[in-house]
Design goal:
Layout lengths: L2 H40 L31 E3 L12 H12 L5 H21 L6 H16 L6 E11 L2 E3 L16 E10 L2 E10 L5 H17 L6 H12 L3 E4 L2 E4 L1 E2 L4 E4 L13 E3 L14 E9 L6 E2 L5 E4 L11 H13 L5 E2 H6 L6 H9 L3 E4 L2 E2 L6 E10 L4 E3 L7
Antiparallel strand pairs: 1-18, 2-4, 3-16, 4-5, 6-7, 8-11, 9-10, 9-11, 11-17, 12-16, 13-14, 13-15, 17-18
Helix pairs in contact: 3-4, 5-6, 7-9
Subcellular location: Cytoplasm
EC number: 3.4.11.18
Keywords: Aminopeptidase, Cytoplasm, Hydrolase, Metal-binding, Protease
């Protein structure tokens, strides 16, 4: 090879090197440009952090469920002759129609149920002997108001928080000035109501703080679960009651060497629920706790509180002590009121509670003062019903468990079911 040829080859190699370098530079620029674009993309607004519930829970549920879809309760297929409903396309379609109907939307019920679960689970940790009944009631009700995002008749407390103790089975909540303190040996029933657009979640549980009455609690919980299992479209109320009674009476409690049978409280019952009417109004249905001949059937779309009460006493309650619960009597005819104080109080009740139950603490919270005479006058005129606490024999113990169920066209939904019971 001569020198001229070598020089030309060298020049060609140099040109190739320049091309490689140029391509390399261009590539670097492309990479740099792509990297810059990637960096710009990464500068998007950071995602909002999911809210974290406080302890005790006080952040409204809409912050956690912004799409308005709340957790389902326990879904149970209908049994026996009704199990065809689960796969029936007609019933599944009807279920979707009912779900989307603003008047019956399941989401109102489910929001109330989720509030109930959170409040009661916190209450079970919070409640301890040594606390006053007022302290316990305020803690529970503050939680309900915050989580349900209380707003007049749109959402709020469904009824006064029941905190019935020992032989008192139901309908006790502390009145203003009540100083009663929970004791270690007490058996406490906690009955909480939550409503969203009038759809009330009604669910209760019992707490004890030493083991003597564990079997009483187990008996009543099992009886409630029996009632839930036997309930369904076309189920007869008398037959459900018989099953509840059989379960309850299969338990006994031993106290200081003496054995007591667990008895269902015969004059208490579960009940249907209608919008803004906790006991289903004038045409409401009762789910009794002892066998009877009631052939009335549960129907599609109905909404029930299945609650059972058990006792180591006689299994029958009577009125006693100071009344705390009141509610409008929807069957009462209009009565002229001459007392100005009664007129003013009735106006306050209509504006704040409507047909929902209330208590004296709620009246004072709404601004009522010196109202007792007017309140008793409204009761005497039949405009209000007073609902006194109910007692079995002194020295006996009573327990309560309760869940709310929805008889959907294709399945039964135990809307208030939770991990705790």
């Amino acid at each position: 090879m001569n020198q001229a040829t070598e020089h030309e080859d060298s020049r060609e190699e140099h040109k190739l090197d320049e091309v490689d370098e140029a391509e390399s530079d261009t590539g670097d620029k492309v990479d740099a440009s792509a990297s810059g674009a990637a960096k710009k993309k990464k500068k998007k607004k950071p995602k909002k952090k999911k809210p974290v519930q406080t302890d005790p829970p006080r952040i409204g549920l809409s912050k956690f469920f912004p799409n308005g879809k709340y957790p389902e309760g326990e879904i149970v297929e209908y049994k026996d002759d009704n199990n065809w409903r689960t796969t029936s396309e007609e019933k599944r379609h009807l279920d979707r129609v009912m779900y989307e109907d603003p008047e019956t939307t399941y989401e109102n019920i489910r929001k109330g149920a989720e509030v109930h679960r959170l409040v009661r689970q916190n209450a079970r940790k919070f409640i301890r002997p040594g606390m006053t009944m007022t302290e316990i009631a305020n803690h529970i009700e503050d939680g309900v108001r915050a989580l349900v995002e209380e707003n007049g008749f749109e959402a709020g407390i469904g009824f006064p928080t029941g905190l019935s103790i020992n032989e008192c089975a139901a309908h006790y909540t502390p009145n203003p000035g009540d100083t009663r303190v929970l004791q270690k040996g007490d058996v406490l029933k906690v009955d909480i109501g939550v409503h969203v657009k009038g759809r009330i979640t009604d669910s209760a549980f019992t707490l004890n703080f030493e083991p003597t009455y564990d079997n009483l609690l187990e008996a009543v919980k099992a009886a409630t679960n029996t009632g839930i299992r036997e309930s369904g479209i076309d189920a007869r109320l008398g037959e459900i009651a018989a099953a509840i009674q059989e379960t309850m009476e299969s338990y006994e409690v031993e106290v200081d060497g003496k054995v007591y049978p667990v008895k269902p409280i015969s004059n208490l019952s579960g009940h249907s629920i209608k919008p803004y009417m906790i006991h289903g109004g004038p045409q409401g249905k009762s789910v009794c706790l002892v066998k009877n001949d009631d052939q009335t059937k549960m129907e599609e779309g109905e909404y029930f509180a299945i609650e059972t009460f058990g006792s180591t006493g006689r299994g029958y309650t009577v009125d006693g002590r100071e009344t705390s619960h009141y509610m409008r009597d929807v069957t009462a005819s209009q009565v002229p009121l001459r007392l100005t104080s009664a007129q003013s109080l009735l106006k306050l009740i209509n504006q704040n509670f409507g047909t929902l139950p209330f208590c004296r603490r709620y009246l004072e919270r709404a601004g009522a003062k010196d109202y007792l005479f007017a309140l008793n006058h409204l009761v005497s005129k039949g405009i209000l019903q007073d609902v006194p606490p109910l007692f079995d024999l002194p020295g006996s113990m009573t327990a309560q468990f309760e869940h709310t169920i929805l008889l959907r066209p294709n399945v039964k939904e135990v809307v208030s079911r939770g991990d705790d019971y």
